[in-house]
Specification:
Pfam families: APH. By secondary structure, this protein is α+β, with helices and mostly antiparallel strands. The chain has 14 helices and 12 strands. Strands 1-2-3-7-6 form a 5-stranded antiparallel sheet, with helices on one face. Bound molecules: 5-S-methyl-5-thio-alpha-D-ribofuranose and magnesium ion (MG).
């Protein structure tokens, strides 16, 4: 099914038809801007003369970054709506206020957070956002716990799992993260100066690790995960806005039942990109040290929140001893996924501005560092038992 695509011109009439949204903005005075800078969708900010605003997001029937030659079902907005429904209940303060799904038009409406900054942009500018990584950790713990068999009895878990298919977007992740960077593919692209590092990714020892993580992604249906929790899926407050919450997670269209470590990994992999950028730009030590603390900050918040929720689990067969084992497994998954998430942004389709906006010499240095470090993490993840071991590996490579 394809539904009519909204435009800047048709948004006011569309909102007028949405009596459930009456009063959120004054439709007599609104201006509308299309601001989608992601890879997939249309995003409109609607602002009235008094400054009240909201976001209208609609899935396009194709992949925006490529165009109509890559059709993609508009049903992905249903997956995003499921993600917001779950997070609105389980972790309302870590997401924008969600005003619901209009299924017929494949539209969701959200609080406008554009007074803040997408975190990737703030990182690219060298801005410190204290407390944002902890928000990510808490968010992942709450939604991860609350949609898992730890919080749901088996029938509810199975119902939730079966009600949450997102096959087309999972396919994109399987191809772009776990498959294409490790083979010849027309969408891959990299600077020839890093040929050796890229082609080295096809060595059997690494391919075996990629295969193990791919299967974990495909079959580890632990909880409803965000599915694309990179630094472009997080808003941080504008500089100097001390009253705003430290971060909000958005863009949940990749939500699916998967391993909880996948979301933490997406964040970790993108921290690696930010670290590479900061190093080649020789950013101030305070900024680089703060970047180096983000994985530990996110993990500590995740760990603390998960442990706090553990006492509410529905099945005492999930023992305290098992929790330790599960957390360790989740850490190992997370750093493995993080490595692959970093690699895909260097080699595959859909690059990251952290690296792409550097000059050529910086780009080559940063890309080479990311590939070498990410690979060392993926291959060595079982031995990187804690945050300190990872920090030592990453920091040691940064200093070289
Ligand atoms: C074709 S979509 C490309 C990428 O954009 C999203 O942010 C996901 O990361 C996806 O892999
Ligand atoms: Mg996105």
């Amino acid at each position: 099914m394809t539904v009519e695509v909204l435009t800047v011109e048709t948004i006011p009439a569309y909102l007028a038809s949405r009596t459930d949204l009456a009063g959120l903005v004054d439709l007599e005075t609104v201006t509308v801007q299309e601001v989608g800078d992601g890879n997939l969708n249309l995003v409109f900010i609607v602002t009235d003369a008094a400054g009240d605003s909201l976001v209208v997001k609609q899935s396009l029937p194709y992949v925006r970054m490529v165009g109509e030659s890559w059709p993609l079902s508009q049903d992905r907005i249903l997956a995003e709506a499921r993600g917001y429904d779950a997070a609105s209940t389980l972790s309302p303060d870590t997401i924008p206020t969600y005003h619901g799904l209009h299924e017929e038009r494949r539209v969701i409406v959200l609080e406008d957070l554009s007074a803040g900054t997408v975190w990737r942009r703030a990182l690219n500018e060298g801005r410190i956002s204290r407390g944002a990584a902890a928000v990510i950790g808490r968010h992942v713990a709450r939604v991860g716990f609350g949609t898992s068999p730890f919080a749901l009895d088996s029938a509810d878990y199975l119902r939730a799992l079966q009600a949450s298919p997102n096959p087309e977007l999972e396919r994109i992740t399987l191809d772009l993260v776990f498959t294409d960077p490790y083979r010849d593919h027309p969408d891959n692209a990299w600077n020839p100066a890093i040929d050796a590092e890229v082609l080295g990714l096809r060595e059997p020892a690494l391919l075996d690790e990629v295969a193990a993580l791919k299967l974990r992604f495909q079959t580890g249906a632990e909880a409803l995960v965000h599915g694309d929790l990179h630094t472009g899926s997080v808003f941080v407050p504008a500089e100097g806005d001390a009253d705003a919450p430290p971060a909000k997670v958005f863009d949940l269209e990749f939500a699916f039942y998967g391993p909880v470590g996948f979301d933490l990994g997406a964040f970790f992999g993108n921290v690696l990109l930010a670290q590479a950028r900061a190093a080649v730009l020789d950013r101030p030590a305070e900024f680089q040290e703060w970047l180096g603390s983000l994985v530990a900050e996110a993990w500590a918040a995740f760990d603390a929140e998960f442990r706090a929720l553990w006492s509410t689990r529905v099945d005492s067969a999930f023992s305290d001893g098992f929790l330790e084992r599960w957390l360790q497994r989740t850490w190992t998954d997370a750093i493995g996924f993080g490595g692959l998430k970093a690699i895909r942004r260097i080699v595959g389709l859909a690059k990251a501005s952290d690296i792409e906006t550097l000059d050529e010499a910086q780009h080559i240095a940063a890309a080479r560092w990311v590939l070498g470090t990410a690979r060392a993490i993926v291959e060595g993840r079982e031995g990187l038992a804690d945050r300190a071991a990872l920090a030592t590996l990453v920091g040691g490579r940064l200093e070289r």
